[in-house]
Amino acid sequence: MDARRTTVRDVRRRNRSVLLSELYFHEPLSRQELSQRTGLSPGTVSNVAGELIAEGLVVEAGSVDSDGGRPRVLLRVNPGYGRVVGVDVGETRVRVESFDLTMAPLATVDYPLDSPQPRPEPVAAQILAGLREVTEQAGTGPVVGVGIGVSGTVEQGPPARVHAQTLGWDAVPLERMLREGTDLPLFIDNGAKTLGQAEMWFGAGRGTRHAVIALIGSGVGAAVITNGSTYRGATSSAGEWGHTTLVYDGRPCRCGSSGCLEAYVGAEAVLDRYREAAGSPAPGDDEESAITELVASADSSPVAARVLEETAGYLGAGIANLVNLFNPERIVLGGWAGLTLGARLLPRVREETARRALRHPYEQTSIELCRLGPDAVALGAATLPVADLLTDPGVRSPA
Amino acid sequence: MDARRTTVRDVRRRNRSVLLSELYFHEPLSRQELSQRTGLSPGTVSNVAGELIAEGLVVEAGSVDSDGGRPRVLLRVNPGYGRVVGVDVGETRVRVESFDLTMAPLATVDYPLDSPQPRPEPVAAQILAGLREVTEQAGTGPVVGVGIGVSGTVEQGPPARVHAQTLGWDAVPLERMLREGTDLPLFIDNGAKTLGQAEMWFGAGRGTRHAVIALIGSGVGAAVITNGSTYRGATSSAGEWGHTTLVYDGRPCRCGSSGCLEAYVGAEAVLDRYREAAGSPAPGDDEESAITELVASADSSPVAARVLEETAGYLGAGIANLVNLFNPERIVLGGWAGLTLGARLLPRVREETARRALRHPYEQTSIELCRLGPDAVALGAATLPVADLLTDPGVRSPA
DNA sequence: ACTGCTTTTTTCAAGCTCTGAAATATTGAT
DNA sequence: ATCAATATTTCAGAGCTTGAAAAAAGCAGT
């Protein structure tokens, strides 16, 4: 099927990748441990590690006793080998953040969007300005790459194009637009997917290979991770959980269809349902505080309690669908509304999911809350160039 | 992540696989064409092909002029290298079928199941008997492997266990039970998945890498193919489309939940809905003829027309969910009921899907009918050992 | 028949890569 | 100092692919 030849050189590429990845996620490690973990012979580990050290990607860092014998020299990824930048193009602001190679944050800038439906050109300009800014601030070493998480679906190009209904963007060639201002490697992806990536590397998804990060904000989205990598489908718009029909011919959804999950458990939808049930809007200046208020009032207000109870039902059913279709090891519930609602509703959501999902896949799944919060979109985006580096560490020029 | 070392030997393994697969799906091919298609140098192709020929996996088959020069020698996979057996453990019978390596059918035997809830032991005995039978009948060459498609979810072991609610099987160690009667390599999988595999190789899924085979029989299932291979999830029970909630708190489903897709578009459910609407059961002795009758009567019976129209709506919504979540290139509608209903309803189903799915992923998808019919479960199962052979052609002993 | 021309296959030295075994390095204990 | 215990490095050996050159196999014309 996959008619791609393999040469001896690919062997080295792959083994460099295996070694570096192992080190990245389990540092510090001695050559000897590395040999055991990767299955490579000590000779090869020594050889490859030497190469990586010479290139500056890896550094020796102290040593540790080994009862009686020569001490083990510990190796780590060199955080200063280079920097990566993550960009979060949200619905209200552009955030640009830089990190060292081990994802320690270095600098951040935020730009508010001037309109809820900003034109793409100024946004691209903001991204480029932010890029310059964080690059000039703290940190040394070349920028290895830039990851960009956008709240919309991204058609992987080249050049990548962005379709974002909420921003009013249709097939915006963001990659080409940025390309005019920078030569750095660019990685553009959907924001929900980059957030999912962040949870997989550093949050509640750690250690699993099959997970779904279910995100509830004003809208609803998901990142599906299968076999350790983000599931994209044919044109990388997979995972549109929010617009999955849950209530046939139910409430109208902003996508034009009706009965979508988002029309029931999205923050906006929850508040709408409350308003209809209570006859008056939920208190709070904005969606975010309104949801918080709603959850807080559940103990005293029967109406709020009922709306939340119903929400748990819908959400449980939506999650059960994920369980049945994807059979993940873990479902991670996040997004700002997901966290607020989940803090109270998680046990009920688990029950409702159990009631509706098939027993066998349900038993294989744990349902948990996100650990990183909704601001991790930029972190996850910055992860993309690092992942690329780990997958194929070798094409780039040494520092 | 994937801490697996690679050695020089893997290079040969992979290239053997690439070459053999290319040949399998595009034969006949000359060495020179093979070199172009795989990207391997002529020298390597010659070398690897020679090895495969010596082992009997590949044969030279005629030659073809090449204007003016030395004629090209055509190569093909040797159909007589060995045989494969496919088993279909359905709800009413066990079918065992043998094929040559290129999937030309050689022999078939059927055994009716003595009860709708047969005990596993006699079924295993029937499989083994069928295996002996088809092996002794037509065909020569050793049996390379046996694939088994079971109507239930299969927990890939080892040993593989089968959970089949309709058969009344719970964690049946089918692999171990068969192992006592044969030493052949066994591949056990869900019947919907093997049928999907058959459609991918020889049916409506050919040429795509991302597809969903949606199957409607008495129940409803699906096989999801991503990146060219069947999606299994963490414990290989992924793709349970039929028990996905489509109508929140809707009709009760035999799985214990309610509002499942299966409770609306499964053959049994369609007939139930007709009975409720018409006040009398649909004509026909069994489910299959009843569905056929129902479709046939739609032009004259308003009730039948309405039930079918509603079915198209539910099915369209269910398919739209697949489109949104998996973003496939193609949706293939099959199963005996799916084919009968689809013959009439396909245009309406497409419309309903379009109405409910997101525009972008919908435009990437074509919706078609199965080409192989529901009997291809055994064919698809027999495909499993072949796929294994193509992936790693080398461990086995030469013919 | 023989020669020249064209195109396909095979052959082969070179250059990589991993491995297992042996050699070397490093440190604490005697 | 010397020994013992480990950790690393070195190195010959074997397996791969490659690109170039050589060989093979027809066809056409003389």
UniProtKB/TrEMBL annotation, chains A, B:
Pfam families named in the record: MarR_2, ROK
PROSITE patterns membership: ROK
UniProt superkingdom: Bacteria
Cross-referenced Gene3D superfamilies: 3.30.420.40, Winged helix-like DNA-binding domain superfamily/Winged helix DNA-binding domain (1.10.10.10)
UniProt domain HTH marR-type: residue ranges: 19-61
Protein name: ROK family transcriptional regulator
Similarity-based family: Belongs to the ROK (NagC/XylR) family.
